[in-house]
Design a protein that fits this description.
Low-confidence stretches: 368-378, 397-412, 478-490
Number of helices: 17
Number of strands: 25
Structural class: alpha/beta
Strand content: 15-25%
CATH architecture of the largest domain: 3-Layer(aba) Sandwich
CATH topology of the largest domain: Rossmann fold
CATH class of the largest domain: Alpha Beta
Strand order of the largest sheet: 2-1-3-4-13-12-11-8
Mean pLDDT: 78
Distance between the termini: 57 Å
Helix content: 25-40%
């Protein structure tokens, strides 16, 4: 049994699929005891260093993880799972890492484009069973803007060249961690995972590679996918999406089967372009989501999905952000998303105004806190589990979307039923938690009455005139339903 630590960010489905492909069962960590009782622990991380460490702290997983890492049992960290081992990161100044290894995480300061993304090689620095069966000239998949800089060179397992020679994996005792993604590195990556999963074997000496490693040219299979007249998803081609031939949709094959075939024939990446998504709402396109899930079970290179990733209002008037659409694709097995025509419109708008709105699909998806925001919205992460700074960022951003609302949010309290109390500095100088909860229950959770009663009581106790209180339902914040459930009270 392999235990996998998923702290709630991005696509870990591909790691689970790769481990299961190799014949192992996977148990997802749900509490601290799952870490402490694990026989082998895998920690894949995507997103940002700051969010990762805050969530580990708030879920009470930091100390159990440190205990496991010092226990001598096998550990594999991937990407941010490598970064977490170190003391701190330039990505999140002031946020402490686990400190298992001395050193920092640095951002690339090079003339090449950042992030470093694609297939690159490795220099193996010491004997290890991790690369048993490899020749040494294989390419592995990278996608990152930061790299680790250990104080102790003896922990370095491999290095890679990209404007600078950086550490691409470490190994010390039973701890192994990689910057590259073995679960997305094809047969080579599966071999590395297999070497980790099996019992300790003979450590082979390193294969010396004298030349500088370089990004490889890639073969990317791009499959246009849409439904035919029978409602089945097929791979098709046409001139500007005119895909009919003799009245029928041109059928070039099943998308899952073709993706697997291209992978087995050596494709470095598979891209699905959901051309049905340009007309229909993607989150209701369950067959396309199922295609992603099935493909990710047998294809171990990056999966990209494009088509229809933008803000939507469905036929019922329900609004969905581009982030929600992208997040559903990520959960279903996608590693990257491709934004087409919307990216052109976003670029044109920026060139015209010179201003970022914070509302475009590109900005929503790329924001540091986007995954935490989406996890909260989906109910995977509750407001109580989110950090106060995350709540402040999310709510302030939502409030800023409405010009009629101007408030400085200095203090938070999470009430019942996902309700949030937001207040400017001054209220909690006069009231304690017991006062707030008592009035909230007394007014039966009604936002307007609760706000008024809280301010009245604060003023009775000598509160300042500029006290501002908001009580909002968190799901409404995420949906940005203003001003239906938003009340300002003075």
């Amino acid at each position: 049994m392999i235990t996998l630590l998923d702290y709630g960010a991005g696509n870990v489905r591909s790691v689970i699929n790769a481990i299961e492909k190799l014949g192992e069962k996977v148990k997802i960590v749900s509490n601290r005891d799952d870490i402490l009782s694990a026989e082998k622990l895998v920690f894949p991380g995507v997103g940002s260093f700051g969010n990762m460490m805050r969530i580990l702290n708030e879920k009470g997983l930091r100390d159990p993880l440190k205990d496991y890492l010092t226990s001598g049992r096998p550990f594999l960290g991937i990407c941010l799972g490598l970064h977490a081992l170190f003391e701190e990161s330039e990505e999140a100044p002031g946020e402490k890492g686990l400190g298992i290894l001395k050193g920092t995480v640095k951002r690339f300061d090079i003339e090449l484009s950042v992030p470093h993304i694609g297939w690159n090689g490795i220099h193996i620095k010491k004997p290890t069973q991790t690369f048993n069966g490899l020749k040494g000239d294989e390419k592995l998949y990278f996608v990152h803007s930061y790299y680790v800089a250990p104080d102790d060179d003896s922990v370095v397992l491999t290095t890679t060249d990209y404007g600078v020679e950086f550490v691409s994996s470490i190994q010390t005792g039973h701890i192994t961690a990689t910057q590259f993604h073995p679960e997305k590195s094809g047969p080579t990556g599966l071999s590395i995972l297999k070497n980790f999963l099996r019992e300790r074997a003979r450590e082979n000496p390193p294969v010396p590679i004298q030349s500088e490693t370089k990004l490889a040219k890639r073969i990317i299979a791009c499959l246009d996918v849409r439904s035919n007249d029978q409602g089945e998803l097929v791979v098709t081609k046409g001139d500007q999406y005119d895909v009919r031939e003799k009245g029928d949709v041109r059928d070039l094959g099943n998308p899952v089967e073709l993706a697997r075939r291209y992978y087995e024939e050596g494709a470095d990446e598979i891209t699905f372009l959901n051309i049905t998504g340009f007309r229909d709402f993607p989150l209701e396109d369950m067959p396309m989501i199922e295609v992603l899930k099935q493909t990710s079970r047998n294809v171990f290179v990056p999966l990209t999905i494009g088509g229809g990733i933008r803000d939507y209002t469905d036929k019922h008037g329900e609004k969905y952000t581009a982030l929600e659409v992208a997040a559903e694709y990520f959960r279903s097995g996608a590693d990257k998303i491709s934004i087409g025509s919307d990216a052109v419109l976003i670029g044109e708008a920026y060139l015209e105004t010179g201003q970022k709105t914070g509302e475009s699909s590109i900005e929503q998806i790329s924001e540091d806190h986007s995954f935490v925001q989406e996890q909260i919205h989906r109910g995977i992460l509750t407001p109580e589990e989110a950090s106060q700074s995350e709540l402040k960022n999310i709510v302030t951003r939502a409030l800023g979307a409405n010009d009629s609302v101007e408030v400085s949010i200095d203090e938070f309290a999470v009430l019942e039923n996902d309700s949030l109390l937001l207040c400017s500095d001054g209220l909690t100088d006069m009231l304690n938690d017991e006062d707030i909860l008592k009035i909230y229950l007394q007014e039966e959770g009604d936002p307007k009455r609760t706000c008024s009663s809280l301010v009245d009581l604060a003023n009775e106790r000598g509160g300042r005139d500029n006290i501002t209180v908001l009580i909002v339902n968190f799901k409404d914040v995420m949906k940005r339903r203003w001003p239906l459930r938003l009340f300002r009270c003075f």
